Amino acid sequence: MNPKVVAIIPAGGSGRRMQSRNPKQYLLLDGKPVLVHTLLRLQQHSLIDEILLVVPEQDRSFVVENIEKPYRLTKIREVISGGKERQDSVRNGLARVGDDCDIIVVHDGVRPFVAEETLSQVIGAALRFGAAIAGVPVTDTVKQSDGAGNISRTLNREALWLAQTPQAFGRRILQEAYLKAAEEDFHGTDDASLVEHLGIPVKLIPGSYRNIKITTPDDLVLAGAFLKQD
Ligand SMILES: Nc1ccn([C@@H]2O[C@H](COP(=O)(O)OP(=O)(O)OP(=O)(O)O)[C@@H](O)[C@H]2O)c(=O)n1
Ligand SMILES: C[C@](O)(CO)[C@H](O)COP(=O)(O)O
To answer: What is the ipTM of this complex?
Structure first.
């Protein structure tokens, strides 16, 4: 039997660094909200069975009426209220995952350029090894600051990667990681950090430099250029 794959899409942020009136997940790219671009990529992926979409609590009905229904996002099983931090939003999504799920894929609602191939490879590696994320090698030289405006050391770039989403995990592994994080008040900026905290190895799958997270106004300019090329 095929494994059941559920995608949790955290889109519950307010986009402070974008400094726009509307949260960045609703800003238009080529006439469609950023979040719709992202969701269509997951909707169209043959390995993804269900989507749990997490949005700001006050936006749930807006998202159902203006995103889920008009764009026929039929894989969305539930639109869930987000929490204060990204980790809280993913936790709310995780609470709605059924026991029949084998693999959970977490993917930021604001990474609209995720490639089909990246999703396939990350899901495949999670099936084989239990935990896998997409990432790209660092291309700049990385300095550690001493916190007072000086460099304390230069890190070895050979070993450094930028973590992206998608990040995929066996269901029980991610549930256990979130449980331990709650018990120990552990906070991470991605889901893999929580699994690493469990002591479980996580595979790094080379992704794409195009899989940007829309974070600042400059990212929207870049996204517009990528769309023109597609
Ligand atoms: N409480 C939160 C915060 C973030 N996210 C989601 O997690 C993803 C990555 O977060 P980020 O880029 O930091 O989004 P924001 O928190 O909205 O941005 P900022 O930090 O600039 O406020 C986004 O899809 C965002 O909507 C979420 O679901 N719930
Ligand atoms: C999960 C993530 O996209 C991996 O790079 C990133 O850590 C999210 O960070 P943010 O500060 O919530 O944007």
So the answer is: 0.98
Closest C-alpha to 27, from 37, 12, 42, 41: 37
H helices of 59-161, where?
60-63, 86-94, 116-129
Measured CA to CA, the distance from residue 65 to residue 56 in angstroms comes to 15
Whether the Cβ atoms of residue 169 and residue 104 lie closer than 8 Å to each other: yes
Beta bridge partners of 168: 105, 132
Question: What pTM, to 2 d.p., does this model score?
Answer: 0.98
What φ, ψ does residue 91 adopt, rounded to 5°? -60, -40
Q: Compute, in angstroms, the gap from residue 26 CA to the centroid of ligand 2.
A: 18
Q: Kindly identify the ligand whose nearest atom is closest to the C-alpha of 83.
A: 1
Question: To test ligand 2's pocket by mutation, which of 190, 209, 211, 219 has the most ligand atoms within 8 angstroms of CB?
Answer: 190
Domains located in the chain, CATH noted = 5-229 (3.90.550.10)
Q: How far is CA 86 from the centre of its chain?
A: 10
Q: pLDDT tens for residues 102-111?
A: 999 999 999 9
| Cβ–Cβ under 8 Å, residues 103 and 4 | yes
